[in-house]
Design brief:
Length: about 160
Amino acid sequence: MSIVIKPYSKDLIEAVIDFNERLKKGGSTFRLPRSNIPEWLPKIENRKIYQEYLLAIQDNSIVRGGYCLKHQEFSFNGDIIPIGVPIFPLSEGIIDKTYNFVALQLLTDALKRQPLLYGLGLGGKEEPIYKIYKALSWSTISIPFYFKVNHPVNFLRNI
């Protein structure tokens, strides 16, 4: 089974719709975007912060997974360098164990495209994505999420 990771182009929209339908039938609530152009931070010429969608394609036409790669620049010790964040890698492995390897393939692809990656909001150490990051020997730290409610009455009325 040969799977290639390539940018989500307009000609693959129907294949993504088919993929999403398989996920739905398998009981998953997760979906890949129907549009091949990100609504937030689409790639625009000369813009250094943007997102792109990439798909895992089998036999040139069957989508088995995908992810969004956000490109941006960060300052480290005064040096501005490009980094990335793979957002929501999703594979058919969540409903069919035959495709478990696809999630790993997606993250490996992200590393090839941008060797300096970070991830946030993994949901906890029990989540499959966290386990994949650990399997890839990524450094991980838990960052607690705290917030202070300044106006509790207004907050409680609006949650």
